[in-house]
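In this section we walk through a basic example: taking a raw amino acid sequence and producing a predicted 3D structure, encoded as discrete structure tokens. The instruction is simple. Fold the sequence below.
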Amino acid sequence: MRVDWTKLPPELLESISGNLKIYTDYLRFRAVCRSWRSSIPKIPFHLPPQLPWLMLPPSQSHRAFYDLSTNKVRFLSLPESSNPNKRHCGSSHGWLIILDESPSILLLNPLSRAKLHLPPLSSFPNVDSFNYSAIGKEYSLRYPSGGRYTRNLRQMRDSFIKKMVLSANPSKDLNFVAIAILNQTGELAYCKNGDESWCFIEGAQFYSEDVIYCKGLCYAVNKQGEILICDVRHDSPRVSFIETPRQLSGDLQYLVNSGDELLLVTRHLDLEFSFEPDQSYLIYRTKRFEVSRLVWSGPHWERVESLDDKMLFIGENSSLSLSASDFTGCMGNCIYFTDDYSETNYEGAFREHDIGIYKLWDGSIEPLPCYPRNFFFPIRWPTPLWITPSPC
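The resulting token sequence is shown next.
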């Protein structure tokens, strides 16, 4: 006797769909037939963090996204993100943070097309004034020491904010918080959903290497690997510090929440000479990574020799740790990295980005299939960016 799978009870279909963890599996499940599609929600709010896509340079009004698990490129219509006058200063919980040559700060979910605006650049505490009529000096700013300086629209877009992260997916948590690292002063600023302006976190200056949000708290790290913890849920942020023995080597530091552990990823860079017929160039290149975990008793950083099944995604995105066994086409004990530290590599004729897969077990670097080593963009575009696809 043949079974009519289209007649499965709706409650059984809902139970099965609730156990699916990969978004593409959920889409395929809904696509089986009309009765299955009508029995489960269009938007799966239960999904865990998905495998990030690598956002590549745009083609007209579309953006290309490289999917590691399928080794394919997907295209999405994203006119808000496809203009060369736009700049991305982060991706977090499936949302892009987009700046342009105006004070606007836009949050955009590429999958759902949802949009939100954060308080503008002109509302940061160190911005004294903003005036479109003052051409070339639209922003008047104040140094922490009290001195004043001016910046034009492009300079503010490109260099005012180093990176921005969100505490949660804005579609799932209306009480989300945004944290921004300021590029030149090394200060941390935050705003809550619904705020009209940004506030500085007092005492957080120079904890500007990286910032993550974990279990309701903001963690930031400085060049020496010392940690600041901040609770911004109150009217006055509560700040504490974890003083560890100083890390004296490495060029960049990243924080990653991996299960119950807080990891410190140290990036070492080299300078390489590249020669053209008319001139030579200096190009930054990742040489190696070191990974340490925080031992809370002490406290101190302890070297991690193997990530086992874990893979880390670092760059301008909110740092992420996932299990390779949960996805096809991925390798555990690896760091998937993008270039987030210097525009030098793509301002000149080379327009090259420092991107790849670092293997902890032998220290080698493998190029991403969509982005071979020594690959040059024909025009100037910002570095590719990891973003976790989120249907909501």
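Looking at the output, two observations stand out. Residues 92 and 185 are 23 Å apart (CA to CA). The two ends are 41 Å apart (CA to CA). In the next section we compare this with other chains.
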